[in-house]
Amino acid sequence: MAIDQAQVNAAADALAARKERVTIASVRDELGGGSFTTISPWVKAWKEQHVAEAAAAEELPEEAQRAGEAAARSIWASARADAAERIELIQANADQRIEDAETGMAEALTEVQHLEKAVETREAEYQTLEQTLDGARAARDENMATVQARDATIESLREQLTEQRATAAAANEKLEGLREQLAGEKSRVESSQQNLEAERQAHAETRQTVDIQRSRADRAEERLQSTQDALETMTGERNALQAEAKETTRELEKIRATHEALMKRTAELEQERESLRAESRQLVQDLEKTRATAAARDEAKAKRQKKPKTE
Predict the structure, then answer these.
(1) Is 33 left (phi over 0), alpha (psi -120 to 50) or beta?
(2) 196-310 vs 24-31: helix axis angle to the nearest 10?
(3) Is 308 in contact with 74 (CB distance < 8 Å)?
(4) Cβ-Cβ contacts under 8 Å for 227 (sequence gap 6 or more)
(5) Helix axis angle, 24-31 relative to 36-57, nearest 10°?
(6) Contacts by 216-225 with C-beta closer than 8 Å and gap 24+?
(7) How many CA atoms lie within 13 A of 101 on its CB side?
(8) What is the pTM of this model?
(9) pLDDT tens, 142-195?
C-alpha cells in the first residue's frame, strides 16, 4: 500500500476534527494499514506544522494594543516578562522531554525496522527449508518406489527358483528310477547269459538315457545356482536401498527439527516486535501527554496575561 504525506495529513486532519488523539497508531488505523517506519516521519511533520500554525495564530490581545496608560503598560510588561521567563523555562523542560521521547521513539522504530527485516530473512529461510524438505520427500518416495520394484523382482526370482527346484527334484526322481532299472538290468545280465548281448544293448541304451538325464540335471543345477546368485545380488541391493531410505528419513527428521526451531525463533521475534510496538505506542502516548501539559500551561499563561488588562 503506497502512502504519502498528503494521505497522512488528511488522516491526521480527520482525527483532529473528531477531537481524537493524532498518533502513529491512530493514523495507521485511519489509513487502513501501512508501515510504522513510513508513517512516523510524516506524522511528525504534520504535528510540527500544526504547532507552528498555532504559534503564528497567537497575537497580542486587542485590549493590550488599545491600552494607553503608562501604569497599565508597566504592569503588562512586568507580567509578560515574568510569564515569558516562566514559559521559557517550562517550554525548555517540555522541549527536552519531547526530544527525549522522540529519540526513544526513533530508536524503537529503528529496532522495529530491524526486526521486520529479520522476520523477512527468517521467512526466506523457512521457504528454502520447505523446498529442501520437499526435495527430500521426493527422493524418499523415489527410493521407496525403487525398493518396491526390486522386491517385486526378487519375488519373481524366488518363484523361478521354486520352479527350477521342482524341475531338479523331478529329474532326480527320474534318475533314481533309472538307477533302479539299471540295477535290475545288471541282475538280469548275471542271471541270464543267453540274453547277454540283448541285455548289454539294453544296458547301453539305459546308460545313454541316464547320461542324458544326468546332463539335464546338471544344467538344471547350474540354472538353480545362477538363480540363487541373482537372488543374493538383488537382496544386497534391496538392503542397500533400505539403508539409503533410512538415511533419507533421518535427514528428513533433521530438517523437520531445524524447521521447528526456526518457527519457534520466528514466534519469539514476533513477540519481541509486538513488545517494541507496545513500547513505541507508550512513548507516543507519553509524548502526547507532555505536549498536552505544555499546551495547558500555554493556555494558563494566556489567561494570566489577559487578567490584568481586564481589571
Answers:
(1) left
(2) 120
(3) no
(4) 157, 160, 161, 164
(5) 110
(6) 216/171, 217/168, 217/171, 217/172, 217/175, 220/164, 220/167, 220/168, 220/171, 221/168, 223/164, 224/161, 224/164, 224/165, 224/168
(7) 19
(8) 0.26
(9) 878 887 887 888 788 788 878 878 886 886 788 688 778 867 776 775 776 777
C-alpha cell belonging to residue 156: 519373481
Looking at the predicted structure, is the pLDDT value of residue 83 above 90? no
CA angle 136-270-37, nearest 5°?
A: 120
- Spell out the SS3 assignment of the chain: CCCCHHHHHHHHHHHHHCCCCCCHHHHHHHHCCCCHHHHHHHHHHHHHHHHHHHHHHCCCCHHHHHCCCHHHHHHHHHHHHHHHHHHHHHHHHHHHHHHHHHHHHHHHHHHHHHHHHHHHHHHHHHHHHHHHHHHHHHHHHHHHHHHHHHHHHHHHHHHHHHHHHHHHHHHHHHHHHHHHHHHHHHHHHHHCCCCHHHHHHHHHHHHHHHHHHHHHHHHHHHHHHHHHHHHHHHHHHHHHHHHHHHHHHHHHHHHHHHHHHHHHHHHHHHHHHHHHHHHHHHHHHHHHHHHHHHHHHHHHHHHHHHHHHHC
Residue-wise pLDDT for 203-257, tens only, equals: 788 788 878 888 887 887 888 788 788 878 888 888 888 888 788 888 888 888 9
